[in-house]
Amino acid sequence: MAVQQSSKVTWNCIRRLANAALMLSLGTAVLAGLGSGRSGRVQDRLWTASGAASAHRAAGPSQGPPVVKITPLGSQAGDLCRDDRALLFEDPTGLRVLWDPGRTIDGGTDGRLGDLHVVILSHAHTDHIGDRFHQPADGCGGNAAGSTFSQGNLAAIAAAKNSAVFGGGEMADFLGRKIQNIRGTATPGCAAAGLTNELTVPLTAPCTAALRPGGSRTVRLSQASAGVKFVVVPAFHSNGIPSALVDTPGVAPNTTGYGGSEVGFVVKFTNGLTVYLTGDTGVFGDMDTIIRRFYQPNLVVANMSDMVTLGPDEGAFAVKELIKPLTVMPSHVNEQATDSGSVRSGTRTRRFIDQMSGSGINIVIPLSGVTRQFDGTGKCVNCP
Ligand SMILES: [Zn+2]
Ligand SMILES: [Zn+2]
User: Fold this and answer.
1) Would you state the pLDDT for residue 139?
2) Fewest C-beta in 10 Å: which of 219, 241, 295, 378?
């Protein structure tokens, strides 16, 4: 695929260090325009970045239309790596949401987390719930253990942050027990008031709740006038709870605990951004009917990798033929997808990008520590 243009621009990467708001900025970036867009739609473009990091002060109150900030919390700053799954969302109201912590967050003490009001989980597999923190010295492609989490990384994070935890299937009680094992007190169910099943945060203790397809919950910061809506949609994968996380008396050797259904999420933010998080899944027809026609996501985070989820060809088909958002982020790529922020040749990620050519759908590569800002239409407003 021909790169039509390349220009140097600057862009920002916001990270929260403890409770102090600091902004990290990554230096130069490369914008590559790909193909031609459909009539009436934004030309499809690929946003990646490269450059060295430098630090400076945080921005003041945001200007212009409200945006949702999305920051990947991956293995290596500025790249998309093998283990990367975790995304941190910040609504314009300040509500902060973590998706699938996995193995690239160092428990509840990871300085990138800051306040964390909600944690959502697709399924219990170890690369999502998090059995360990990867060995940082391994860099982008490694998978060896650094820290380990006897109750799972998600429980460690939620216990430290007093987060509300939403999961599908039978995960609510299971995760509540994992959090209880850390804190020593029972984990309550999350409140759900009124017609929108509203929970007000911040909380003084974590809670867990089940969400099953067709249902929804809304979470609102106490000082905010609007909340963020969370919906669960089907996924087509599996959801066995790793035996190492099943409390005594455990399960038979080489079997997993029953976790119920694996899920994807649709999250509707207060500025109108509607994100479909596929979770691990194959292609299914309801992506076209229920998810596109009813929930109308304008940003898709597509888990696509190799043998256990959407492959790059299937992922591209699902996004451009079934879901049809304005923008897509490929994730869960199970490879070192980028080198200094640029997509490497011969990768599945490159294959996905090539398959998306001419679709009119923007592609944003989720680079660890690089905060992208999205308006209510699904457009990235600070991509180069
Ligand atoms: Zn899985
Ligand atoms: Zn996975």
Assistant:
1) 80
2) 295
